[in-house]
Amino acid sequence: MRWQSLLIAVVVSLAAQASFAAADRVQDFRNWVDYRAPDGSFSISFPAPPKKLTSSRSEPGLTVSTTDISVGGFGLTISEGLAVADPNVVGALLDRMAGPKGADKPEYVRAISLGAVPGRENLMFRDRAWVYQRFYWTGTRLYNLMVTMPARDDKAVSVRHFFESFRLK
Fold first, then answer.
1. Which segments within 16-138 are labelled E, that is strand?
2. Is 65 helix (H, G, I), strand (E, B) or coil?
3. Helix (H/G/I), strand (E/B), else coil: 67
4. Reported pTM
5. Position 48 in a domain
6. pLDDT tens digits for 39-48?
């Protein structure tokens, strides 16, 4: 009888752990906030209302404006002002953006696209955190989607939802 009780307790404990692990993977995205660009050029969902910061910098013959939209570890940076039409140059630019930066060495870099828009996806460990990034280049704008997490989780549904919610118009 005692062994039977112990066996039942172990089975119930294991079932509860599996249930909690599965619940970790399921999120209710109905509470996420849709953000739409004022000019209608893109939309994306954030886990909470994001903050928006805009800046610009000028160099001789070039002005680049940057808009950062973020909340928590979820962010989107839009850089405007560089006009590049050559696909080879765009590919090299995306490779450089997604490639190693000093001590940051990507775990992986993949060519991706959003419809006809070329992009790159990468994962890096930077400043004691895992950084998932996607870059898209439209010819006049560079979109950098980024999620920072304390632990690596390639199956994180929140990362996937954030990336897949991004739409270009």
1. 33-36, 42-46, 51-59, 62-71, 74-80, 108-114, 117-126, 129-137
2. strand
3. strand
4. 0.74
5. yes
6. 999 999 999 9
Residue 9 lies in a domain: no
CATH number at residue 157: 3.40.1000
Q: Is the pLDDT of residue 141 over 70?
A: yes
Helices marked H in the chain: 2-25, 87-98, 157-165
Tell me the HSE value of 119 on the side-chain side, using a 13 A CA sphere.
Answer: 21
For residue 4, what pLDDT is reported? 53
Does a structural domain hold residue 134? yes
Q: How far is CA 57 from CA 37, 38, 63, 64, 89, in A?
A: 21, 21, 6, 6, 22
Instruction: Count how many domains the chain has.
Output: 1
**Percent of the chain's residues with pLDDT above 90:** 40
What are the backbone dihedrals phi and psi of residue 31, each rounded to the nearest 5 degrees, phi first?
Answer: -90, -5
CA–CA separation, 107 and 3 (whole Å): 47
Which residue range(s) make up the domain with 135? 29-168
- 19: in domain: no
Is the pLDDT confidence value at 85 over 50?
yes
- The angle at the Cα of 47, spanning 69 to 42, to the nearest 5 degrees, equals 45
